[in-house]
Amino acid sequence: MKFLFVGTNPEATGAATHFAALAQAMAEAGHAVSVVACSGGLIAEELAHSTVQLHGAMFRNVFDLRGYAKVFAVAKQARPDWLVGNFGKEYWPLIIVSRVLDVPVALFRHRAPPMKRLSALLVPRLAQRFFAASNYARQAYLDRGIAPARVRVLYNPVDMARCRPDPQRRRAILHRLGIDEDAIVLGYSGRMQGSKGIFTLLEAATAAMAVEPRLHCLWLGDGPDAQAVRERAASSPAAARHHLLGWINDVQPYYSAMSMLAFPSIAPETFGRVSIEAQAAGVPVLASEVGGAAETLNPGVTGVLLPSGDTAAWRDAILDMCDPPRRLLMGAAARDYVQQHFSAQVIAAEFAQALTQPTSVAQNVATGVHG
After folding, report:
1. Would you call 163 helix, strand, or coil by DSSP?
2. Angle, helices 91-101/117-126, rounded to nearest 10 degrees
3. What is the architecture of the domain spanning 167-341?
């Protein structure tokens, strides 16, 4: 098949990473892929050395005529079988282009709750395919009265070659940070704000450090509460074992340095890309049992689901994961699990299959759903 992916959001977001990974996966699967992306943005940078055909453009808003003109021009040249969009400001432009050129459009939604009410009602009905990032996110549309057949689930793909265990990389990162090689490293990667559960994690990790002297915490991210985390970490008895590195554009190398990853959100997450990336690198995950996070791991096998905001439960789970046999067994299972359910090859095949099925078929194409 021929695809024209349109994603001109320049920011480094999970949706942008998904967009680039899916476009790359479809190209590697043998499909012809063209991409309209913002020059200099994360998507263009991720795909710069791939086989996809890149075209620079940017939709500043839904009324940006230059964006329309570029998409029309590229679509006429590429003659795609499908248009693919990932970002809200491009939903209506792509639906319009789809109607004018008579090319079907597949749209992805990475947020829950969904769009403004009118768009939430119309967009899933007007797009030939509409995908939510998890069953949790899909349910938000069903609750709005959208027919189940109109909203499918396709999980984020992971590049297994980029997210992989790398002992040499681990040693290099730990050496640079002044951490002993036999240390147990608890990692966090994401936005630094209270709704992400960072203060629960800080308290739980500090309490666990009082019991386990080898435990360190590696913090990757920035946000409105970053300074508060720095101040509390600096005043804790284990201040030297909290390592706050700020925002990291490419976090994937740092998974190798982690012994476990914490995903402690209090507010429901639509999905949780960081969880599957860490597991792909052989890192077990501790995640809050809220929203779509529960769909990213196999509880008791590749990680543990925990009550959000419960400091004592998180402290105990961190200490349990400090046990080497338990941690290593889960880490090995985690990479196999991601390979089977979230690898780029698997998701590309599921996406292609979903596009060839009749619209009337209610199909949940995700294979990582837990019973």
Report:
1. coil
2. 30
3. 3-Layer(aba) Sandwich (3.40)
